[in-house]
Amino acid sequence: MVRSKLKRVQPLVMTLVVALLGYLVKRADLAGILAVVSETPGWLLVTLMGLQVVTQLLLNLQWYRLCRVLGWPASFFKLLVVNSYGAVVDAITPGEKVGGELARVLQLRKYLGYSTGQATILITIQKSLSLSALVLLNLAVVVTMANYVPYLRVWPVRLLILLMLVASGAFLFCLLFRTRSLAFRMARIKTARRWFLPFINWVEDFARQTDSIRQKRGEWIRQFGLAVLIWVIFPLKLILLTLPHTGTIPMPVLFGTTFVSYFAGMIPLLPGGLGTFEATMSGILTAYDLKLNQAVAITIVFRFITFWFVLLLGLLFIGAHRIILFAQRRKIHVPRP
Fold this sequence. Notes:
Blueprint lengths: L1 H26 L2 H9 L3 H29 L5 H17 L5 H15 L3 H30 L9 H23 L1 H9 L8 H19 L4 H24 L8 H15 L10 H11 L5 H42 L4
Helix pairs in contact: 1-12, 2-13, 3-4, 3-10, 3-13, 4-5, 4-13, 5-6, 6-7, 6-10, 6-11, 8-9, 10-11, 10-13, 11-12, 12-13
């Protein structure tokens, strides 16, 4: 039912985003945009790329720590390889990034010897933590931005958004902390369907692993804090980019702009959310006294740091890893005198 409603709304959202993107392209001055981009200080670009590298390392640290807590084989370097493959596939697949998770499952099996069940459990736990942090941050943004964004001042809209976020948070909470009850209820279901039995076993195993994390005192708090830190670094980059152009945009607005743009980028319109992300961020920034050229230039630089730079890092890391493997194989096959 929910999926069918989303499918009905999706064409309208896509039409609005395409119209906004077309408007921005028509009104934008390419020479002026490039001039603003070229004025970005070199030290700022280096700082932003450094922050992005820190983001990727913190994300990999969360994966590594989860593996260690679960008692599974873990290698920080191999997990970097796994996430590099996932980042590359995320960039070339439209919308919801399911392809990236499938790539991570395959690479976890290949490099760490995980079963499909273990790989999917690890990915589910990590994504649930990440989404839980994002929901909490969005709740904070809705509350703090209510006085700055016109449509949030309308209480029915604000109430609807708050209810959606609370419902999402409740679902994620049950997924991480009430899975044992779900597994118990599913085990009592009598069915002859073959596909359902493996799913029941997976839920039971998932509940067992979340229980093992809960037995380690303070681990969930550390994992959630790490997820929040990873997300907070993203709007920090946008704040640093906008400061040379204006200091009048409230900080909560920049936080909200970042998260709303990422949600818009999940619309399966183009690979990696291209177009939808840029149109959303530029459109919001222009509503706060930024010139169109400045807004588009800020969006381009932000997108380069958080998308193209990550894609480039992933490709370079995968290439370096393949070269190392090739050199190791060649060394093994070199005949000794």
